[in-house]
Amino acid sequence: MAAIIWILVAVAGASGWSMLALHRGETVNAAWLVLAAVCSYLIAYRFYSRFLANTVARLDDRRITPAHRLANGRDYVPTSRWVLFGHHFAAIAGAGPLVGPVLAAQFGYLPGTIWIVVGVILGGAVQDFVILAGSVRRDGKSLGQMAKEEIGPVTGMLAMVAILAIMVILLAVLALIVVKALAESPWGVFTILCTIPIALGVGFWMKVIRPGKTLEATAGGVILLLFALVAGRWVAASPTLAPVFTLSATTISWGLMGYGFVASVLPVWMLLAPRDYLSTFIKIGTIAALALGIMLTLPTLRLPAITRFIDGTGPVFAGKLFPFCFITIACGAISGFHSLVSSGTTPKMLDRESDARVIGYGAMLMESFVAVMAICAASILDPGVYFAMNAPIALLGGNADSAVQAVQHWGFTLAPGQMAAVARSMGETTLLGRTGGAPTLAVGMAQIFSGAFGTSLTALWYHFAIMFEALFILTSIDAGTRVGRFMIQELGGHLWQPLGRTSSYPSTILASALIVAAWGWFLIQGVTDPLGGINSLWPLFGIANQLLAAVALSVGTTLIIRAHRARYAWVTLLPLSWLLAITSTAAWQKMFAADPHLGFLAHAAETAANIASGTLGAAKGARFIFNDRIDALLCGVFLVITWAVVVTSARVWLQGVRAPAIAAAAEGVA
Amino acid sequence: MHVAVGTANGLIRRAMTLVKRVSGMPNYDAYLEHLRVHHPECPVPSEREYFDDYLKGRYGGGFSRCC
């Protein structure tokens, strides 16, 4: 009986994939995409994750988990399986899986979808699971600690530097997405500004007025957020208030930096904790609503399966399908950042070892499904609208007519006045060149929700989607700035001891200023970039994130080999070699490609030529050249660190294979 | 009648606990229960003390939210 059900699932999945792959020239319904993905997940979970759990990790419920052994009622708390699933999912799901697939839709929906599904099954979910299982057997130790103890102190240090560098790029690119979504949008700016006093109010309520009553405070906060969303429409329509909240990209960038600094120095109860609760509520609610909306409306995909831009000439970002489709999708298929959560709060809450299967592997499948929904939302848009929103202004020209011509030149149609109509229906003045993915996703979500629940609220849905993304990006910014601050204090403490005092005010302020200056520098670079910033920063972020995944998979391989299961090490070595191939190729091309849209150094050379011929001011040009060189240097640093981690790990692997007795890891009670 | 009200209250309470746990909120009642079972000799903190301590444990060392 069970066999028959699984055969049916396999047949359904196969028919989904063949509908996607074989229906060229005709439009395909999003239902096929969802069907193909879900059936693939079911089969992977049932068979592959069982192999990982029983044979590779040998999860054993007779071992007592750290949540029980070290129970303290605070961070070590045994938590039932489905509750922890929700908690873990809320911690790993962020803006990445929503934005990456939207950008990768430049290649059409098919390449992105294949990588999201195959990548998660063989790579992303394996990484999350292996790190979770390893950390549970080591008292919930972090990735950095495991790298240090299982591989060596040098590798541990390299891993920490890599995490810090990646954090800086992540914060810059997330901030850039918010800036791109909010610039010149009074409605959006007003709503997002309101989230700050609302979070402060929630914090004040649960700290001072009714201590510990987080649930009622957060529920009140959510209601106020929705009110701020509706009020944003009045602000945007008001001739006196709208100009006050219409801010330039540069102003918003400085505002975000100031916010990140203040949030990192303030006590957690004031901003960080309430914002975390608010965004968790909104996040889970919106993702559920999006899934429901797609199921109810079953929209048609209007983007082609594959576009001509797989040759690397696309306007959204430069580079060919290989490796940039994989770099761009990043978090939806495999995300190095998850290894920090899988070796952070989650292993300290696991009730039984066997729960690691559904939480480590299963929650990542869920995240991948979010990425599939994001690619659906981008693909139901008119392709002309998609490219007019996602190409930088420099390529579109400054006005609606030049944009129509540019889009036609790329081989898609855009009617004159079409973009103005879309912008009006979303309650915005213009949507041309709104790069960064968030606005595109918001238009797609607004269309889906309007299809499901009526068109009278389209503009409200658009701004709800923008608020939803900006809210949890801001949460990432304050959490990330704080984490970065602790890391600078810890690393800096090795160099100069007073910097390491995390409770000292001067040290805190100095370290916070350093981390904000670091990501703020990249943010300003992105905002002033003539090609729109996303073109240079998103690939850097993608490379960084995939490289962190490579570090995590190296640690995972070490854990497997040191547990005497070297013959199963291919489960992590397979995705690791693929990641090394794509990230090394991508980093190399970003540094040295001859195309100035793609290679940082080629762009610097082109800028120098423009200065020499007098078409570009010397001061401005010198700044662009400096930015390009820093970006190229950063790519090189990422590449060197990752290969150093892999090579030092490989020595431990060889040792483990040759003399297993010496290298045997102390699994179990450490 | 009484039974029905009791069940409804229990359901609401259980739903609230579920929401608290999924969103990583502090849970004072559960902590009291943990103290009662594992450390009956320890002094019981007030809800305010527990809340401060909880936030320190959860966010003090920095925490990760994903991209």
Give an overview of the whole structure.
The complex is a heterodimer of chains A (670) and B (67). Chain A has helices at 2-22, 30-56, 66-69, 81-92, 96-104, 109-136, 143-151, 153-182, 186-209, 214-237, 241-245, 249-265, 272-297, 321-329, 338-342, 355-379, 383-390, 393-396, 400-409, 418-425, 438-453, 458-495, 505-528, 534-562, 570-592, 600-612, 618-658, 660-663, and strands at 28-29, 300-301. The mean pLDDT of chain A is 91. Chain A has a domain at 2-169 and 269-390 and 501-663. Chain A has a two-stranded antiparallel ribbon. Chain A has 670 residues and is mainly alpha-helical. With 67 residues, chain B is mainly α. Chain B has one domain (2-59). Chain B contains 3 helices and no strands. Chain B has helices at residues 2-22, 28-38, 47-59. The radius of gyration of chain B is 16 Å and the shape is globular. The mean pLDDT of chain B is 77. Chains A and B meet through helix 4, helix 10, helix 13, helix 15 and helix 22 of A and helix 1, helix 2 and helix 3 of B.
